[in-house]
Amino acid sequence: MASTSVSRIVPASPEKVWSLVGGFDALPDWLPYIPESTPLEGGRVRRLKNTEGEVITERLVDFNETERHYSYAILQAPFPVNGYVSTIRVHTVPGQENATEVQWSGRFNPDGATEQEVVDLFTGIYADGLDALHQTLTA
């Protein structure tokens, strides 16, 4: 199983960051390449569309409001992986009220691509996503 993780310090309180990213259906609020999210099954599943119109369906598998993290599994997507599970975590930065560390990580099995190709793919997606989060918070 392959994995990758990216983290960024963003200029906002953990409460503010979690209020933006903590909703399972909230990706369009901060992730420009996911302009559409439709909640299904009472909000436990989301059907996303990316800017190319491709559909990605994901299931919420863990959610912790107190610790500010959630995990999800891909049910269907145009990615060369299977067994994909990802987690978004929001951490306090000791001594800094208006700084928060956001970590986006995932593990997956390559399927039709090399391990390095899929690690590079998701590292890029997570890095671009956290850069977009930073831009949303500073806009």
TrEMBL record:
Stored Pfam families: Polyketide_cyc2 (PF10604)
PANTHER family: BLL4707 PROTEIN, SRPBCC FAMILY PROTEIN
Protein name listed in UniProt: XoxI
InterPro entries in UniProt: Polyketide_cyclase/dehydratase, START-like_dom_sf
